[in-house]
Specification:
222 residues, 4-stranded antiparallel β-sheet, 8 strands, alpha+beta, Jelly Rolls
Length: 222
Amino acid sequence: MCILLLSLLIVNAFAFEQDLTVEVAAGKMECFFQPVKKPGGVEVEYQVIDGGDLDINFFIQAPDGRVLISEHRKTDNFHKINIPTVGDMKVCLDNTFSHFATKLVFFELISDEEDDDDVDNESWDGAAEELQELVDMTLDDFKTMLDTMGQNLDKSRNLQTVLKMYEARDRNVVEMNFDRVNLFSGLQLAIMLIVGLVQVFMIRSLFEEKKSISGHKLKTST
């Protein structure tokens, strides 16, 4: 029963929570809509983990049409904003300034407003007597403990997700630099080989000219 109550609390701890990894093609813009059931605070975080110079245009539009966040050619950022009205908030990733590079972008939306539900209250009321028999604490104390536990678990999971995205971005940068080093090393090696072959052919041609001149002199003297 305790596990069931914990599951109910964690599910309803946030009005919504969304995290996505999106590929935005060069010259394109991707937009997403998130329903907002009631006004409240929203945490927003995004970061470009692969592609080009690791930059993107990012903006959020409130349900009433107001632009709450507008950033140009940023790699990553974190915001805590207030959604003033009910409706669909709009989140856009704009890569129209790039002509060749496709960007891989991670972004996360978390609402910190609790979602009150009569069904949940009925579940709590029905479990009050059983809880009194199982543990020596009041229902409010138990709800507070589970609330804290659920929030800590959500924060830990979100932090792990963000750290994973940072690790993916750093790995992509290292692999990109590795490819560039190999490319320039290959070009330098090819140039060195070409220069070496040219020098060999030039030196051989000098000796061939001397042989032809000496052979011509011998024919003339005879």
